[in-house]
Amino acid sequence: MNNFVPERGFNKENFKGSCLIVPAVSIGNVPQLAVDLLITTLNLKRVGFIEDDSIVSVSGAREDTTEGTGSSDQQLTVIQQRAPAHKGKSHQYARNLVTFFKECHFSRIILLASADAKQRRDVQLTGDSFRILTTDNLSPDVQSRISSLDIKTLETPDVEEDYVKPQAHGGYPRIVGGGMSNYLLSLCKEEKLALIVLILFAMEGGNVTEDNVHDATLTANKLTSLLSEQGIQSDTCFEYAFSVMRSLRQDYLLLGKESTRNWISPRSWNGLFGKPFEQELY
């Protein structure tokens, strides 16, 4: 079963023409953490949820495992997936998502994914840790804007380096640790949907180390830059997002590293690393 249940007063037709951001449950849960930052910082409002039997049920104040949020100008829609798919059901979930994409007529879709940094090849060990893959259905203008960001396309491995042929992934390089990313990409290619996959090489730290929070911040930074380059009209929340990005770039120049001080983390992160040790112990 796949069904979008809107909040009272929200019409599914409002999705038409908006840009959709979706996380793939990937190594380190980096995409989901990045989406948390976006939803909180941009103050995105809940617009509904997706009922899908393919996803593991959760229990809590908000028990909906796949939640939809959106900006006030209805140009940005963000899906947050709070639980993985049942074993053997990830492909079914991907197919259900594609049906949802087609019904809602999004202008383009950005899939956030992370790939196993331990599986990098020599050419991927230096330089930017981000890679990108796209379907062939992006407009020339969007392709040009993406090119201006200088994000490398994920490299196609040599045959002797990868025992799985690219044809098994829709002709795309394998995103190791990227969950359903390859399958969803191949489905969108078949259905002629405009899809961008933003990939970060990450390590498996789960939710118990600060490494993945830093990775999530890097992903949110890059995504904000990508949205800006795609020329999305900005209202108050987007103006704030762009000012955050400008500040982060300045911090990068001054400090030599990305700053996290302008991103607002959700309250659920307060207990992420446990209670600090009492100083009396030392």
TrEMBL record:
UniProt entry tagged with the keyword Chaperone: yes
Keyword entries, A-Z: Chaperone
GO BP: proteasome assembly
Listed GO CC annotations: cytosol; nucleus
Transmembrane segments: none
InterPro entries per record: Proteasome_assmbl_chaperone_2, Proteasome_assmbl_chp_2_euk, PSMG2_sf
Protein family according to the UniProt entry: Belongs to the PSMG2 family.
Functional note: Involved in 20S proteasome assembly.
Stated name of the protein: Proteasome assembly chaperone 2
Organism: Paraglomus occultum
